[in-house]
Amino acid sequence: MIRANTRGRLTPADLQLVVLLLSRGSAHRRAYIERRLATEGPDPLLDAPELLERLLTVRTMLVPSEALFFYVVVRHALLGARLDDRELADYMAALLLDFGQRDRAWRIDWHDDQRHRYLVDILADLEASQGERRFRVMMHLGNYALWLAGLFPDYIAARHLRKGGPDVTYYDTLGRRGFGMASDHALAGEYGLVAVLRTAAERFPSVRGALNGVSDRLLFPSHSTPDRILRDLGAM
Length: 236
Known about the structure:
By secondary structure, the protein is mainly alpha-helical. The protein has 14 helices and no strands. It folds into 2 domains: 1-101, no CATH class; 113-236, no CATH class.
């Protein structure tokens, strides 16, 4: 199950790299940043506006862990979309970390025997599920809709144009539905996920738009489509 725990995966080496990147070789500034880390914790440093750019151009023997990289990328993308919610950033970064491995995005959980490539298959599974599995299927409906519409919007647009597939509003609708149902389930409270799932449901198009920006910049930087031009102009 995806949990909002990416910051909890950060290592001392990650924080050392953050201090190094923000100090830019200045011993005086490094001492200041280390004092801030000791007194305020890592969150203010991870939010530093310059940190993302420096991570993207890091040229040191130290390299960011996947947890550090994805958290900073997602956190800054959400801040750019006026979503100042660290728990949400924690959750979305954990989603990208998990779904980026093998065929995890097609499975309700790592050890689930079934694989779902389409949202309609997840809906069918939801109707047939009960108890904790039903809760996990609800979450997966939101997670998978966000994964596809957030990181692969041009694929969705191409299928819509060429094969009459659903457009991005379909993914927004089902993603909000999945997260919304999951947030109301009793198990969401037990797992401490009520707030983050509710926010994901209420702000799904904004979260998806933030991930569109991540995809455009980091996954497909040289890919140009009419839909991407509209996104760049703020029309989608």
